[in-house]
Structures are given as C-alpha cells and as structure tokens.
Specification:
The complex is a heterodimer. Chain A is mostly beta strands. Chain A is about 0% helix and about 55% strand. By secondary structure, chain B is an all-beta fold. The relative contact order of chain B is 0.34. Classes of the chains: A mainly beta, B mainly beta.
Chain lengths: ~120, ~110
C-alpha cells in the first residue's frame, strides 16, 4: 500500500522569505500523480500544485514550485516570497495512475507566516 | 460557479441517531468522493462514485452508506451514529480519475 509522510508537523517563515515543505512517499508503481493541497482555517481544501510522475520537469505555479525526485520518492514544496495568506495546513497527496481511486494523504504541515 | 457544495456545515448528533450529509456539484464531474478528516490526520476515503448509479467502498466505509442517482448529487448517510464518527467530512469531485479534485468546505460532525 502506498504511504505519504510529511516529517514536519509545523514550520514557520518570515513574510517575503522562502520556505520548503518536505514530503516523501512509498510506492512500487511507476505511474502516479502527486499533489499539494492547502487547507486554510476556513477548512476548504485547495489544490496548490500537481505533478505527473512521468514528467521530469518540476511543476511551477507562480510562487509555488516543487522539487520532484522520483528515485528518492521525494516531493517537496517551495513557497517563495511568502505572504500572510499562505498560512495554512499543507497536505501532500498521492494518487495511483491505475487501480486505486483514493488520494493518499500525509498528515500535514502547519505553516505559520510571521509578519 | 458554486463548485462543490456541502450541507450542513456543522452538526451535533446523539449516539444512535441517523443523518444525511448532502453534497452537490455543478461542474458535471463524473467522479465524486467522500473523505473524513480526523484531528492531526490527513483525509481518508469513505466511499466514491465513478458515475451515476455506480458507487464503491473506500478505506473506511463501515457505518456509512451512499447513493448516486444523479451526476450532481452524492449524499452520505450515517446510520446509528457513534462517537468514532466524530470528524470533519469532505465531499470532492473530479472530471476524470487523475484530475484535480475539487473539495467542498466540509461538515464538522460531533457525535455525543
């Protein structure tokens, strides 16, 4: 079974600085998708970024980028120029490219942005 | 666009009571999901549906039932509520299997 591990329960960053959130996963599959979701205090789960395992190029969305290391099974999220609105829980998630329907989530990292 | 709408947002149930959590999406998505989120944990899949009339169990289906009579609606039924079902429940939908999942705002359920 696939597992997702987020080793940092909490992180903090100064406004305008850069922070990296870690995620590792365990799978024997070659076809899969990885996601980072943001959950602000409003509880809404919002997709931040998505990475297909078959793509070597790291995904980027504005201030958010990932470092996808397939061999190491690592999928970290970098947030540049951090803003107060980035404060939230961040969840790393895995979905199989075939077979299981479920998203497998890590336990989350709580990000605090200090002014 | 409304996206995925869940009702109610909060609910307190007594042990043994039943209720239905409603979920509606207006994006014409085939895939719909119910997850629960326990404190300090990620989300776990309860049930999912790949289209109207088709549902299947996820990781933690015990104590729940679902139906999917239309593309838009995917209600989750709790029968004989138990304290272990105290959680935040999320409904989600996606256009195809590996596409981005859109989530509702969640329902915080407390069973006392």
């Amino acid at each position: 079974a696939q597992t997702v591990t987020q080793s940092q329960p909490e992180m903090s960053v100064q406004e305008a600085e850069t922070v990296t959130l870690s995620c590792t996963y365990d799978t024997s599959e070659s076809d899969y998708y990885l996601f980072w979701y943001k959950q602000p205090p409003s509880r809404q789960m919002i997709l931040v970024i998505r990475q297909e395992a078959y793509k070597q190029q790291n995904a980027t969305e504005n201030r958010f980028s990932v470092n996808f290391q397939k061999a190491a099974k690592s999928f970290s999220l970098k947030i540049s120029d951090s803003q107060l609105g980035d404060a939230a829980m961040y969840f790393c998630a895995y979905r199989s490219g075939g077979g299981s329907e479920k998203l497998v989530f890590g336990k989350g990292t709580k990000l605090t942005v200090n002014p | 666009n409304a996206g995925v709408t869940q009702t109610p947002k909060f609910r307190i149930l007594k042990i043994g009571q039943s209720m239905t959590l409603q979920c509606t999406q207006d994006m014409n998505h085939n895939y719909m999901y119910w997850y629960r989120q326990d404190p300090g944990m990620g989300l776990k899949l309860i049930y999912y549906s790949v289209g109207a009339g088709i549902t299947d169990k996820g990781e933690v289906p015990n104590g729940y039932n679902v139906s999917r009579s239309t593309t838009e609606d995917f209600p989750l039924r709790l029968e004989l509520a138990a304290p272990s079902q105290t959680s935040v429940y999320f409904c989600a939908s996606s256009y195809y299997r590996v596409a981005e999942a859109f989530f509702g705002q969640g329902t915080r359920l407390t069973v006392v």
